Amino acid sequence: MAWKTLDDAALAGKTVLTRVDINVPMEAGRVTDTTRIDKIRPTVEDIIARGGRVVLLAHFDRPKGKVVPEMSLGHVVPALEASLGRKVIFAPDCIGPAAADAIAAASAGDVVLLENTRFHAGEEKNDPALAAEMARLGDIFVNDAFSAAHRAHASTEGLARLLPALAGRLMEAELKALDAALGTPVRPVVAVVGGAKVSTKLDLLGNLVAKVDHLVIGGGMANTFLVAKGIGVGKSLAERDMADTARAILEKATAAGCSVHLPVDVVVAREFKAGAAHEVLPATACPEDAMILDAGPMTVAAIVKVFENSATLIWNGPLGAFEIAPFDAATNAAARSAAALTRDGKLISVAGGGDTVAALNQAGAAADFTFISTAGGAFLEWMEGKELPGVKALMG
Ligand code: ADP
Ligand code: MG
Q1: What is the pLDDT along the chain (396 residues), one digit of tens a residue?
Q2: 380 to each of 201, 206, 224, 316, 346, how far by Cα in Å?
Q3: What is the pTM of this model?
Q4: Nearest CA to ligand 1 atom 5
Q5: In angstroms, what is the span from residue 356 Cα to ligand 1's centroid?
Q6: Please, what are the domains in the chain?
Q7: 293 and 267 in contact (C-beta within 8 Å)?
Q8: Helix segments in the chain, DSSP class H
Q9: CA separation (Å) from 383 to 133, 260, 350, 395?
Q10: Are 228 and 247 in contact (CB under 8 A)?
Q11: Distances (CA, A) of 96 to 38, 114, 134
């Protein structure tokens, strides 16, 4: 791997500025889901075990360069202490004497948390002066916030230029999993791309057809591809003005030797609501007054067959309107098949995207996937083949 990890530096006696994502959901000043906090534990423990002093840098919400008391990281201290089982010393600023004093006051094994980096306007502008103020506080920079790596900010990119920079354990796991799925994958590779709209995933489709062996298109975006092939989709969600773009993607796929799989049968309904009367029809037979809300059973069987013949799966976007039953059926069945193949050691499965993660959880399939990225925007930009500034800065 081209990036350095915690294994590549001596940390004894060093102050380690550690960028994490603890932008956790909060209600009335209390953390309601500690997942992101729990995930930084391996990095924190590793640094302490090697004799380093952990100083956490993080953003919270969008204060837009101003001090907004409700967005203070002070609110997460109790949850952080509970999750880490360590004393957390909070500094009311991420630079200057307040930060330096908190760091000086920490005993071995304590964790220092600096205030919201976005309270300074220079953070999102990647202001070198702000990065230099941060750099003055420590000896080594560790970035464990893959989910913030698509943004070139002072605490993600600028700081990495000023100190020896390493990937934390969570960042390392994410980079390894993503590289295994698209960088240097075991072939054949199948990508599933679903969701609502083609227009939001153009770069993603364009990048994938050049890299994968099979592309399964589902969800609302499949309707746009059906339209591009001259097939009527009634009242379905479809972007009729994207037909040319969809055709260009199909041509690019053919040129690259990527097989594209579109729905052969579909579940249609007249109402977009749970339990709406529905029927299964050939994909070519959607009535004028109906809409396609899910892929049909023949399509699911074809997708499962592609999974069985693949070694690697990368998935973004549900196959149907999974929030309303029974239009979650195709997504659930495909997800469970991928989970079972992964459990049996026959498939490497990686998935990401806000709704995708929700859908895989709902299907009870997430735990069996090789890797589920919760990184949202950073995951999508990586799938689009874009270079993430926070990751690039770790490459030296
Ligand atoms: P992600 O957040 O994982 O990137 P998207 O936001 O692109 O995924 O897509 C998820 C949305 O797509 C869901 O709200 C789902 O209801 C919607 N969707 C999928 N298939 C259809 C369809 N056939 N008609 C309408 N909406 C659909
Ligand atoms: Mg979404």
Answers
A1: 588 999 999 999 999 999 999 999 999 889 999 989 999 999 999 999 999 999 999 999 999 999 999 999 999 999 999 999 999 999 999 999 999 999 999 999 999 999 999 999 999 999 999 999 999 999 999 999 999 999 999 999 999 999 999 999 999 999 999 999 988 999 999 999 999 988 889 889 999 999 999 999 999 999 999 999 999 999 999 999 999 999 999 999 999 999 999 999 999 999 999 999 999 999 999 999 999 999 999 999 999 999 999 999 999 999 999 999 999 999 999 999 999 999 999 999 999 999 999 999 999 999 999 999 989 899 999 999 999 999 999 986
A2: 9, 13, 20, 8, 25
A3: 0.91
A4: 195
A5: 9
A6: 6-171 (3.40.50.1260), 185-383 (3.40.50.1260)
A7: yes
A8: 35-38, 41-49, 77-84, 96-105, 121-124, 128-135, 169-178, 202-209, 219-228, 243-256, 297-308, 329-343, 354-362, 377-383, 389-392
A9: 34, 17, 11, 19
A10: yes
A11: 28, 11, 8
Nearest Cα to Cα of residue 127 among 151, 152, 104: 152
Query: Which residues contact ligand 1 via a Cβ below 6 A?
Result: 194-196, 219-220, 237, 292-293, 316-318, 320-323, 353-356
The encoded tokens of residue 302 equal 């074809």
Buried/exposed 229-246: b ≥16 CB within 10 Å, e otherwise: eeeebbbbbbbeebbebb
Cα distance from N-terminal residue to C-terminal residue, the chain: 12
At position 237, the amino acid (one-letter code) is: L
Q: Which of 36, 53, 118, 211 is catalytic?
A: 36
* The dihedral formed by the CA atoms of 381, 382, 388 and 391, expressed in degrees to the nearest 10: 150
Active site residue 232: no
Clarify whether 151 is annotated catalytic: no
Q: Is 257 helix (H, G, I), strand (E, B) or coil?
A: coil
The dihedral sign for the CA sequence 135, 140, 145, 146:
positive
Over its C-alpha atoms, the chain yields an Rg (Å, rounded) of 23
Closest ligand 1 atom, residue 316 Cα: 3
**Which tokens is 126 given?**
């990647």
- Is there a cis peptide before residue 63, judged by omega within 30 degrees of 0? no
